[in-house]
């Protein structure tokens, strides 16, 4: 294995060796992994990929490891679901859900990035890993740190969902709540990386970590029969996932796995934190940082690291962006659950509601293939639904009381018809 030339500055193109470093020393541009595509093309065919296990490592030549992964052996290859019922409702007969709410082991797409980042941390010889998180990343770093026998620290805003805090504490690692929003936590983590020399997955390991997101795109294409979709709707926090799905599709064309890469990208955010979406919709040259105020905590990043690049990628692809209110996102969660039987978290509610708006506004042609990216699990953000659902009917263990309920349901249905 080993198909990586090194790192390359996205802005000035300067080359760097493979090292835990994320900013260019000359122009402060972000560093990206640079691959030897000719070499990858000579070994990676559809047949080779299809012969491998159902996990992200089936695309391992397109990931930045030199050796075999040490954690996350079962991450990825989540279902691509044909959404017949939701599609009917939206007038979209070729609608699909890429369902990372059932990713192994921590039920969000973050397992993809963490599997790559911690395997790379091992190659670099780190013994301590850490992250700044809005919730899901912390869950995943904690779980994989245990798998890989790392020491670990998770830094998070103190006010995120209880379930996400518990879903990190359970692994018995060091969890630190910060009295700040994500952007403050992230700034602190940059200082921590300098001072303690740890592998902070979304700071100094960011170039390697972010590559894991490409597998979300690889899988969509493979699962559609080696055909990229015409439209993809992606929730945006830092703006990395949307960029990497696009990169995945472009790379697959470059190495001859597919013939076309004319997918349009649509970004989804919450109205209470929509710096990228606003920049797209209002044609702003630069991203204007915002102070997050939304229940969609997992995507509440007010100063998105990849905001500028994701805005450019969306525009260049002929796509668009949309943001939705907290009420709309809750409707989105319910809509997906009631039509497709998939319970997603707040970020997924944002993505479903944004897709609906984009179709209704004529931004997406509903007759073409559309993939909605569902990136996290609803069981982790249950508090968003407090007071939003009808309570169960409580009865005695008596068949007559059941008869009454069934009669009521039947008469209600009769009225609806
Ligand atoms: C982190 C996260 C995202 C977005 O990730 P970025 O790559 O930072 O844009 C989307 N959905 C969920 C559930 C997440 O946890
Ligand atoms: Zn540079």
Q: How would you describe what is shown here?
A:
By secondary structure, the protein is of the alpha/beta class. The protein has a domain of 202 residues: Rossmann fold (3-Layer(aba) Sandwich). Helix content is 40%, strand content 15%. It is built from 15 helices and 13 strands. The strands form 3 sheets. Strands 4-5-13-10-11-12 form a 6-stranded mixed β-sheet, with helices on both faces. A 4-stranded parallel β-sheet has the order 8-7-6-9, sandwiched between helices. Helix 4 packs across helix 5, helix 11 runs parallel beside helix 12 and helix 13 crosses helix 14. The longest helix has 18 residues. The model has no long low-confidence stretch (mean pLDDT 96). The site of zinc ion has 8 residues, from loops.
